[in-house]
Every structure is written in C-alpha cells, then in structure tokens.
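Section: Multi-chain targets

For targets with more than one molecule, the full set of components is provided together so that the structure can be written out for the assembly as a whole rather than chain by chain. Components appear in the order listed by the source. The example entry contains two components.
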Amino acid sequence: MRRIADEGIRLLDRIGQGELAGDLAEELHLGRSPAWVLAQAMAAVVGAAATAVRSQPYLTFRAVATAWITLQIVNGQWPFAPHLGITGWLLTSAGGPFVMVTQYVACGWVVARLHRENPVPLVFASAGFLTLTNAVYVMMRTLGMMRFRPSWFAVDFVAMPIVLLLPLVTIVGGLWGADFWRGGPLDRDMKVAR
Amino acid sequence: MLTDFELMILLAILRVGDEAYGVPISRQIEAATARPVTRASVYTALDRLQRLGLVTSTLGQPTPERGGRAKRFFTVTAQGLRAVKEAQRAFATMWRGLPQLKGNLS
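Its structure, encoded as tokens over all components, is:
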C-alpha cells in the first residue's frame, strides 16, 4: 500500500502539483496512512482532470474521441472486423478477458501519446467517459435482462461490475504512454533536488 | 467576495505565521472545524487567493521528509487583511442583536 501511495504522490509531480505532492509525502512521513495519502492524491488528480475538462474543452473532446475511436478499432468494430467475425471469436475465447483489458490499456496509451502536453488529466477524463458509456450499456442491458431474460440476470450480476471497472485500466495504459514509470523530465528534476 | 473556506484559509495563514504552508494550514482548519480537509481543495483555494492578490507565496528549501520537494510558504497581503476585516465586519453585523444566538453553545 505504501508503494501505491508513493506512486500517487509521484503522479501529482507529473501533473505539476509538486507542492501538494510534497505535503502528502510529509504527511506520510508524519504517520498518515498510505490509504489516506492515496485518497488525497486521487482526489487531486480527479480535480485536475475536471479542471482540464472545463479549461480545455476542445482538447478534452479530442482525447475522449481518441479513446472511443481507439476502443472501436481494437475492439474490431471498425472498419472490417464485423465481416470477419474476429471480435466474437476473440472475446468468447479463453483469452477474452486479457483481450478486453489490453483494449482498454491501448486506449489510454494512445490518448497519452497523442496528448503529450497534458496527458494525465486527459487520460483520467477519457477513463471517466469510457466508464460512463459502459455504465449506460450496463444499465440498458440490466433493464433488458430483467424484462426478457430474468434467468440470465445472475450471470450479469457478476459480469457487469467488471465491465464497469474495466475502463480503470485505461489509466494504467495512459500512465504507460506518458512514460510515468520510465521517468520524465519532472522526475529528473526531482532527483536533482534530492 | 470570499467563500467561507477561503476566509478560513486566510485566517489559518495569519494564525500559523511565517511557517504557513499546505500542511499546517490544513491542520489548523481541521482543528477548528473538526472536519477532514481535502488537501487539493486547499491548494485550489490558495491559487485563487493568489490570483486575487490576497496572498503571496515564496518557495522554501527542499527537505528530505518531503522527498526532496520544496515547501511553498504563504503570506496574507495588505489587500488580503482588508478582505478579512471586511468579512469580520459583515459577520459581526449579521450576528448582532439576534436573540436566537444569545447564551452559550452548550
């Protein structure tokens, strides 16, 4: 948990909130729990994503559209795959879950690569959008199941939360695309400061 | 016009004095209100106060317990002090003469 909290703090450095990152590192040092620190860091990143959405609506729209189009392409929806029947075969195979996770990771990676100036908030905004679209899908499917196939509802009851959580791996792909684990210019600055 | 939270932050900076940076400011507010304070919201408010010219900030030295990151110290400007006094006057006017507020809290 401590390591995840450290990663959360590092994420704040990458979105230009070095002072807040320092405060959270100090709070951790003074005995705050890693879970508390991680929650504070995530609140700050979500806040930064919300600010990015408000202050850069065009860029946010572009990032969200990029994520959605990428998902359609890697999902085999566009432009040829429906004719080849690849999607159904892949997703119902044993490697289906792995394929789905990879699709969302790819979305985040592409968004981060195409928005080099401010990747992290835009990746979070894209993940939020994909969660929202999945939530609409889950809601409509659940209503349909309850109406027409009540006996299948139990299966969906297990599967649908996974569908809702799946876009979170977009963030992992986004951080990968933003070279978060490799160390960007900010990380180099921090090492000099230490 | 200051929000309640911004007013709290200005008062916390005045209370902490020369060592006013994110951690003691947040802790002052938490102690006064007995409620948790989101650290990001403190910096959002501080940014706004700085844009309005009510506080200024200076960067301190990097420290090891902060992972080599520097502290940003905040000071209330003369304009900020005026804004606090105006808020105090407005609150005092609103408070005065209310029979419901007479007596102790307990």
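The two ends of chain A are 23 Å apart (CA to CA).
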